[in-house]
Amino acid sequence: MRTTVGIIGAGPAGLLLARLLHNAGIDSVVLESRDRAYVEHRQRAGILEQGTVDVLRAAGAGKRMDREGLPHDGIELRFDRRRHRVDFPALTGGRSVMVYAQTEVCKDLIALQLKEGGPLLFEAEALAVEGAETDRPTIRFRHEGREDVLECDYVVGCDGFWGVARKAIPASVSQTFERTYPFGWLGILADVPPSHDELIYARHDRGFALLSMRSPSVSRLYLQVPVDTDAESWSDERIWDELERRFETDDDWTLQRGPITQKSVTPMRSYVHEPMRHGRLFLAGDAAHIVPPTGAKGLNLAVGDVVTFVRALVHRRETGSAELLDAYSANCLRRVWQAERFSYDMTAMLHRDPDATPFDRRVQLARLDRISSCRAAETDLALGYTGFPLD
Ligand SMILES: Cc1cc2nc3c(=O)[nH]c(=O)nc-3n(C[C@H](O)[C@H](O)[C@H](O)COP(=O)(O)OP(=O)(O)OC[C@H]3O[C@@H](n4cnc5c(N)ncnc54)[C@H](O)[C@@H]3O)c2cc1C
User: Fold this and answer.
1) Number of structural domains, the chain?
2) Residue 276: which CATH number?
3) Residue 107 — φ and ψ, nearest 5°?
4) Domain boundary residue, one of 267, 282, 304
5) Does residue 78 fall inside a structural domain?
6) Which of 5, 175, 297, 364 has an alpha carbon 20 to 30 Å from 168's alpha carbon atom?
């Protein structure tokens, strides 16, 4: 098999990349190790930045998102039994976000790819990327019980944190930057209308809590828990009781309970691999960087990476110049590090660190107080949340 761009992974990064390449008239093949149902039902991100929404629309993948997604103009910060709303359009000159689940983004992109795009092979596991330094890199992969080779002009590793692409970059040129956190998120899906029409980020002495949603009838909620927590050790009643305590306010706000249909624990990690390119191998999305989900940045960063790659490849085709391909890693990393910083700041401001002193806890509250009383501080949060520009 031969193609211009070999793509490993059919998460949001790989699927959107294939769509953007198709629209630009560049052929690609996507290899995905899991089956279609698995990719379409893996519960993860849910917040799309303004820029991501714009890219999906321009790619012809925004129709159902515009029908079923929930545009959000703000978030609520909750601390010290107080509530403070951050109004995004007022602070950012009109920017906002969209609540539309990653599962739905993937379903839309898969349907488009299978109907109009190049090959998308499920249950096709990439085993290794070879010849990244040459003009003809290859992907060795296993599909339908036999090994095959995909010859490419370029390979893009969109295979997430545990994928194989990153391993093809020699240790001598790799640098990694990492931080792990001593807590994770216990996430639930519940068949109950959201108790608030915008997301609530709650800082509480017992730990962080987040109220989010997937649709007008499905709530998504999270609780900070110790990193080694077994989700099944938390009964439904205990989860609702703990959420109620962490969201407590001085007014009459109440949390609606309902049947929990799914629970799982997600560890938190910050990670960046530099560079994001080696020869003709490019990394995009979680294959190159991970952020803790507090900033809702992971999927949005993946979108930024693949847009940057496609622009660079089109520039190469139109001008013959490889300057943007050469600048791919540096251009992506500027935005990546802003998202890393933002996600780290949000995590530190809202979570209970087991080693925090009473002094640290007062500083957390002072930060939140500053955001709720100083327009410049609030604007900085709103600009970060709605997204860092692609250029
Ligand atoms: C609980 C949770 C909540 C989150 N919330 C948010 C949020 O609110 N907002 C946000 O922006 N982000 C959020 N994220 C992060 C977001 O989900 C990820 O950043 C996003 O999935 C990255 O997309 P990706 O395509 O780079 O990687 P992935 O989605 O991980 O996709 C990689 C794909 O590659 C495939 N693959 C792996 N190895 C191989 C191989 N060898 N061969 C072939 N295929 C392979 C995998 O099966 C997978 O389908 C959240 C993540 C989690 C876990």
Assistant:
1) 2
2) 3.50.50.60
3) -60, -45
4) 267
5) no
6) 297
User: Do residues 156 and 8 lie in contact, with contact meaning Cβ atoms separated by under 8 Å?
Assistant: yes
Residue 288 scores a pLDDT above 70? yes
- Cα(103) to ligand 1 centroid in Å equals 10
Please give all residues whose beta carbon lies within 6 A of any atom in ligand 1, as ranges: 8-14, 31-34, 39, 44-47, 102, 125-126, 158-160, 163-164, 187, 266, 285-286, 293, 296-300, 302
Residue 76 CA to residue 88 CA, distance in Å, equals: 11
Same domain for 174 and 315? yes
337 and 354 co-located in one domain: yes
- Contacts of residue 234, defined as CB under 8 A and 6 or more positions apart, other chains included, come to 186, 225, 263
For the beta carbon of residue 8, count every other beta carbon within 10 angstroms: 31
For the stretch 178-233, pLDDT in tens is 999 999 999 999 999 999 999 999 999 999 999 999 889 999 999 999 999 999 99
14 Cα nearest atom in ligand 1: 25
Contact 139, 149 (CB under 8 A): yes
How far is it, in rounded angstroms, from Cα 336 to Cα 237?
A: 39
pLDDT above 90: residue 45: no
Model pLDDT for residues 257-274, shown as the tens digit of each residue = 999 999 999 999 999 999
Helix (H) or strand (E) segment spanning residue 380? helix 375-386
260-274/175-190 β-pairing: antiparallel
Q: Whose CA is nearest to atom 35 of ligand 1?
A: 9
For ligand 1, atom 53: residue with the closest CA = 44
Assign residue 258 the CATH number of its domain.
3.30.9.10
Domain that holds residue 23: 2-73+84-178+269-386
> What's residue 391's pLDDT?
67
E strand map for the chain: 2-8, 28-31, 47-49, 70-72, 74-79, 82-87, 97-99, 120-121, 124-130, 138-143, 146-157, 175-190, 199-203, 209-215, 218-226, 260-274, 277-278, 281-283, 289-290
Asked about 12 being catalytic, the answer comes back as no
* Phi/psi of residue 326, nearest 5 degrees: -65, -30
3-state DSSP assignment of residue 303? helix
In the annotation, is 271 catalytic? no
Question: How far does residue 11's CA lie from ligand 1's centre (Å)?
Answer: 6
